[in-house]
Design brief:
Layout (H helix, E strand, L loop, with lengths): L5 H14 L2 H12 L4 H8 L3 H13 L3 E6 L2 E6 L2 H16 L14
Antiparallel strand pairs: 1-2
Helix pairs in contact: 2-5, 3-4
Amino acid sequence: MTVVSSTHATALAQLGHALSDGTRTRILLALRENPARPSDLAEQLGVSRQSMSNQLACLRGCGLVETTPQGRSTWYRLADPRIGSALGDLLDLVVQVDPNCCSPEGCACR
């Protein structure tokens, strides 16, 4: 079993913060498939380029995505392929959890 340090807890909190926003979650899920340019992600997810820029800056700040400049474009990808695997595991887990558990009507967290 891994010894959990405050660094581990901080990293998980950053991931939780990233996943707390639907757009950021959708960006991470999209980047599981392939690297993408911000304009392509904005179009794919149906958000403004400004919103995409803000969300990508947040994800970069959390260390979850990285950039690769290519000519006049910048490509975004997951900072570590294990992030994609972890998201897949979380998706599998969510399928087993009551999908209404955190709906506004039934959430015990609020």
